[in-house]
Amino acid sequence: MIIANQKPLFSIPADVTFLNCANMSPLSNSVHLAGVEAIDKCRSPWEIKSEDWFNPGEELRALFARIISADAENIALIPSVSYGIAIAARNISLRKSQKIIVIEQQYPSNYYAWHERSKESGAEIVVVERPQDNNWTPAILDAIDDRTGVVAIPNCHWTDGSLIDLEKISKAARNVNAGLVVDASQSVGAYPLDVNTIRPDFLVTVGYKWLMGPYGLGYLYADRKYCADGMPLEFSWLNKKGSEDFAGLVAYRDEYRAGARRFDSGEYPSFIKIPMAISALNQILKWGVENIQDSLSAMTEQIIEKAHQSGYETTNRKYRAGHMAGVKFPGDRIVSLSKKLSDSRIYISWRGTSMRISPHLYNDANDMNRLCEFL
Question: The domain 288-374 belongs to what CATH superfamily?
């Protein structure tokens, strides 16, 4: 279902064409208000009750779980993708004879932790090169074999939205007893994902892009086998069983709170960010992720059609997520074109040699026409 334009829910100037949600979403008016109210509350800390340390986080955990069809018990609240990937790297065992599979020009947050694990374990990092047709799935499948220890990949490439079939990759990884770690930062909230189908060991995402929340708050899904005895990165009092009893904190505990809460980052209750994120996820669920995907796909198709008419190279729709589009440009033109765009108050991202276009429901026909005229 195509969602009607939602620009009135945001405060975007009429002369601004913002097509860069993949970089950072504008905060909606309701998310902004939730942040202001939270800041005001923090001015009076005597109004913050003991349950405020835990209950909002539980509400947010449950909301995110609904977006990826998970159980709230499998969700941890984290500050960044690199934090979540570090948890995954710490908990997936690797041997010297094994391989770590990543893809070419993968986002650094899902590479550096594996680079370190490679040095520690002796496992070899195998980089799958970008296929000529941008169809990543067969190339990744070809790289998976009995030596594979973990496949650490995105759902779609951050430079141009080229898509990876996680269900097929997951099946191949399980067939050789390899782990699957997914950085879904460029898809969760805009592209339908079901962890019951994908069955990753870990799935990680930021909350400030397609989930339209504040910077510095992200989400981790952990398979239940890690929820029982997985090793967290840090040992916060908040993660321990019975931490709701403030008076009892002097009695140290070995046991963790249930589920993936053992992986929550220190100070995760973040009295300002969590109310903002709750407002953002409630809006995502109200719109519906499938409806968001349908609506954004219609926008990017319009841009791609114009790009083709103007002679530009783009990724085939069969191999691209609908909410992002990449238009290829010669590298030596990017600096001058970037200035022309910003001078016109048209905002996109340049990633590699791609003009990365990532609209959202606050964009309207005028925004599409302005970029199409530029192309």
Answer: Aspartate Aminotransferase, domain 1 (3.90.1150.10)
Break the chain into its structural domains and give their ranges. 39-285, 288-374
Place of tokens 């960010």: 273
Whole-model pTM over 0.85: yes
Strand-pair category, 202-206 with 218-222: antiparallel
Q: How many Cα atoms occupy the beta-carbon half-sphere of 322 within 13 Å?
A: 17
**Which residue(s) pair with 220 in the sheet?**
76, 204
**What CATH number matches the domain at 39-285, 3.40.640.10, 1.10.260.40, 3.40.1740.10, 3.40.50.300?**
3.40.640.10
Reading the block at residue 365, the tokens are 């026909």
Q: Consecutive 10-residue runs of the chain (375 residues): their mean pLDDT? A: 95 95 98 97 90 94 98 98 97 96 96 96 96 94 97 95 96 97 98 97 98 97 95 91 84 90 94 97 98 96 88 84 88 78 90 89 93 85
